[in-house]
Design brief:
The complex is a heterodimer of chains A (262) and B (282).
Chain A lengths: L3 E14 L8 E14 L3 E6 L5 H8 L7 E6 L2 E2 L5 H10 E4 L13 H12 L5 H14 L16 H13 L5 E5 L7 H18 L2 E5 L3 H7 L2 E6 L2 E7 H6 L4 H8 L5
Chain B lengths: L8 E12 L2 E13 L4 E6 L5 H7 L10 E9 L2 E2 L5 H10 L1 E4 L13 H12 L6 H11 L5 H4 L9 H14 L4 E5 L7 H17 L3 E5 L3 H7 L2 E6 L2 E7 H6 L4 H8 L16 H4 L2
Parallel strand pairs in B: 3-8, 3-9, 6-7, 7-8
Antiparallel strand pairs in B: 1-2, 1-4, 4-5, 9-10
Helix pairs in contact in B: 3-4, 3-6, 4-6
The chains are: A alpha/beta (262), B alpha/beta (282).
The structure holds adenosine-5'-triphosphate (2 copies) and magnesium ion (2 copies).
C-alpha cells in the first residue's frame, strides 16, 4: 500500500460576479465542495466538461486560485494557509504545466532563461555551467534541440512551446506535477513520446501526477484513477478501468459516447 | 461541391525561411495546396512541420523581411496575395479569410471584455447588422457557452481555456468568411463540445459557402469532417489525398508511422508507440 501524497477535503473556489453599481455581487462556484486523494506514485486523471473547474482545481493546489473553503494536505501537512515564505519549498515540489503555453511563457526571455529560472530560485548554488547543461538535458528529453536555447517563445510552434513548458516543470525534480492539457497541442507521435517520458520519470522517481486532459484514450492509458467533473463538482471517481467499462454517471456516459471513432 | 479547375485558393511552391543572428530555419519548402469553394481540407503532421506558419503566410501575418522570407505564389481567386498591399490584406483578413488561432491568449485582448471584442468584430465586418448585442449573444450561444448574455461581461482571464477557444470561434464565424482557417480549434474542448463545434461548422457550410482549412492533430475530427487531407513532415507535404484513402491506405512512411501512434480507448498498451527518424527514411 502506498501512502497518500495529496488529500483534498471539501475544496471550494468561488468567484464574485459583478452585478453592477449598488447591487450585491452574486457568487459563481467554479469549484464546489470537491474531495479526492492521490497516492504517492500514482496518476489521477481529471476529465470533464469545458469550464467545469479542472484548471481551477489544479491552480488552487499551487495557490494560484483563491480557496474559499476546504483543506489541502500534502504529505500530511496542511498547506492551505501557509504564508508564501513557508509555501516556497512546496513551489519546488509541486509543479504545474499550464494549459495555454504562450500565456505562461515570458515573451522577453529566451528558452535558456525560462527553463533556468526555477533552477536559480530553488538551487541558488548551482554553477552556471551546470545550469546550462541541465537545460540542454531537459530540452533533449522533450524532443527539442538544445541548439534552440537562445530563441524566444514566439519563434517556436505551438507544440514546441508546450514542450518548453514541460521542460520547465521538470527542471527542479518535482515530486508532484499538475499537468493541465500537457499533450493536447502535440501530434500523436510527440504526444506518445511525452507520455512515455512522464511514465519513465514516474517509475524512476516515484513521481505523482494530476493529469487533466480531454483525450480520453490518453487519460485511460496513463491514469490509475479517474475523476470526472461537471459544473464545479466531481460526479464520478473510480479506478480507470472501471470508469471506462461501466460509467455510472450520465455525464460520463455522454462523454464516452462522444469520442470520435476512427 | 468542389471545382477542381478553379480553386478558391491555390498555393504554388510556397517556401518560408526564418533568419536570425544564429542562422536560417527553413520552415516550409515548395508547398503546393489547393482549396476549392466549400471544401474542407485538413492539414496534419509533425509538431513544428510548418502548418501554422503556412496558415499565417496566406494573409501576410508572418514577420517582415529580412526576419522572414516567403516565396512562391498564393492565389486567392487569381490574385497573388504575396504581392498584395498591407491595406488589401487587412481588408481580406476581415472580409474573406478568418482565423481561429492555435492559442487563445495570442488573439484575445486581456483588457477588454469578450462581449466588447465580439461586438467590435461584428461591427467591423458586418456594418449592416442592426442588432449587434443580439447577434453577439447568438454567436456565443452557437458555440455552446451557457448563459451567453452574462458571459459577454467576462474578461478572457475569467473564462476557462475551452471557453476562450469558443469565443475565438464565435468571433471568426460572426464575420461570415469565405475561407475559415482553423488552427487546432478544438484542442481545449471536451469531446461533447468538440462534436458540437464540428456540427456547427458543417451546418454553416451548408447554409453559406465557406471553405475550411483545418489544422489538427485529432484524427477523429479529420475522418469525420475533412474532404481531403494534407500530411506535412519537416516543412514538406509528404502525402495528400481524399481523407478516406489517406487514413485507410497511407502511402508515405511518415503517415503510416503517425497513424500507428494514435492512442485508442481500451488498447491496454504498456507504452505508447512513437516514431523515430529511421522509420521515415525512404
Ligand atoms: N478568475 C476568474 N474569475 C471569474 N471566473 C473564473 C475565473 N477563473 C475561472 N473562472 C470560471 O470558473 C469556471 C471553471 O473554469 P476552469 O478554467 O477551471 O475550467 P476547466 O474545467 O479548466 O475548463 P477547460 O476544459 O475549458 O479548460 C469557468 O466557468 C470560468 O469562467
Ligand atoms: N518567428 C520564428 N522565427 C524562427 N523560427 C520560427 C518562427 N516561427 C516558427 N518558427 C519555426 O518554424 C517551424 C514551423 O513552425 P509552425 O508553427 O508552422 O509549426 P506547426 O506545424 O504549426 O507545429 P505545431 O503542431 O507544434 O503547432 C518550427 O520549427 C518553428 O520553430
Ligand atoms: Mg482548463
Ligand atoms: Mg501550429
Amino acid at each position: 500500500m502506498s501512502e497518500l501524497l495529496l488529500e483534498v477535503k471539501n475544496l471550494s473556489v468561488h468567484y464574485p460576479v459583478k452585478q453592477g453599481f449598488l447591487k450585491a455581487d452574486k457568487i459563481f462556484k467554479a469549484v464546489d465542495d470537491i474531495s479526492f486523494t492521490i497516492k504517492k506514485g500514482q496518476t489521477v486523471g481529471l476529465v470533464g466538461e469545458s469550464g467545469s473547474g479542472k484548471t481551477t482545481t489544479g491552480r488552487a493546489l499551487v495557490k494560484l486560485a483563491p480557496i474559499t473553503k476546504g483543506q489541502i494536505l500534502y504529505a500530511g501537512e496542511a498547506i492551505t494557509n501557509l504564508s508564501l515564505k513557508r509555501f516556497l519549498p512546496y513551489r519546488r515540489k509541486i509543479q504545474m504545466i499550464f494549459q495555454d503555453p504562450y500565456a505562461s511563457l515570458n515573451p522577453r526571455m529566451t528558452v535558456q532563461e525560462i527553463i533556468a529560472e526555477p533552477l536559480k530560485v530553488h538551487f541558488p548554488h548551482m554553477k552556471r555551467k551546470d545550469r546550462v547543461e541541465r537545460v540542454s538535458e531537459l530540452l533533449d528529453k522533450v524532443g527539442l534541440s538544445p541548439k534552440w536555447r537562445s530563441r524566444y517563445p514566439h519563434q517556436f510552434s505551438g507544440g514546441q512551446r508546450q514542450r518548453i513548458n514541460i521542460a520547465r516543470a521538470l527542471a527542479c525534480e518535482p515530486e508532484f506535477i499538475i499537468c493541465d492539457e500537457p499533450v493536447s497541442a502535440l501530434d500523436v507521435s510527440v504526444q506518445a513520446q511525452i507520455v512515455n517520458l512522464l511514465q519513465d520519470l514516474q517509475e524512476a522517481h516515484e513521481l505523482t501526477y494530476l493529469f487533466i486532459a480531454h483525450d480520453l484514450a490518453v487519460v485511460e492509458h496513463i491514469s490509475d484513477f479517474v475523476l470526472v467533473m461537471t459544473e464545479g463538482k466531481i460526479v464520478e471517481q473510480a479506478e480507470a478501468e472501471a470508469i471506462y467499462k461501466h460509467a455510472e454517471h450520465p455525464y460520463t456516459q455522454k462523454l464516452l459516447s462522444a469520442v470520435p471513432v476512427f | 461541391m468542389t471545382t477542381a479547375q478553379d480553386p478558391l485558393l491555390q498555393i504554388n511552391k510556397l517556401s518560408i525561411t526564418f533568419r536570425n543572428r544564429f542562422g536560417e530555419t527553413s520552415a516550409v519548402r515548395d508547398l503546393d495546396l489547393n482549396l476549392g469553394e466549400n471544401e474542407t481540407v485538413a492539414i496534419i503532421g509533425e509538431s513544428g512541420s510548418g502548418k501554422s506558419v503556412t496558415a499565417l503566410s496566406l494573409t501576410g501575418l508572418l514577420p517582415a523581411k529580412p526576419a522572414c522570407e516567403v516565396s512562391g505564389e498564393i492565389l486567392y481567386k487569381g490574385e497573388n496575395l504575396l504581392e498584395a498591399s498591407e491595406k488589401r490584406l487587412r481588408k481580406l483578413r476581415g472580409e474573406a479569410i478568418a482565423y481561429i488561432f492555435q492559442e487563445p491568449s495570442t488573439s484575445l485582448n486581456p483588457v477588454f471584455t469578450v462581449g466588447y471584442q465580439i461586438k467590435e468584430a461584428i461591427r467591423a465586418h458586418l456594418p449592416k447588422e442592426t442588432n449587434v448585442h443580439e447577434r453577439a449573444i447568438r454567436a456565443l450561444d452557437e458555440v455552446g457557452i451557457r448563459e451567453p448574455e452574462a458571459r459577454l461581461k467576462a474578461y478572457p482571464f475569467e473564462m476557462s481555456g475551452g471557453m476562450q477557444q469558443r469565443v475565438m470561434i464565435a468571433m471568426a464565424l460572426a464575420c461570415e468568411p469565405r475561407i475559415l482557417i482553423a488552427d487546432e480549434p478544438t484542442t481545449a474542448l471536451d469531446v461533447t463540445i468538440q462534436k458540437q463545434i464540428i456540427d456547427l461548422l458543417k451546418d454553416i457550410k451548408q447554409r453559406r459557402q465557406m471553405a475550411i482549412m483545418m489544422i489538427t492533430h485529432n484524427f477523429g475530427i479529420v475522418s469525420g469532417f475533412a474532404d481531403r487531407v494534407i500530411v506535412m513532415y519537416r516543412g514538406e507535404v509528404v502525402e495528400t489525398g481524399p481523407t478516406e484513402e489517406v487514413l485507410s491506405k497511407p502511402q508515405h512512411p511518415y503517415t503510416q508511422a503517425l497513424i500507428a501512434c494514435i492512442p485508442r480507448l481500451g488498447a491496454k498498451k504498456r507504452r505508447l508507440t512513437t516514431i523515430n527518424a529511421e522509420m521515415i527514411k525512404q
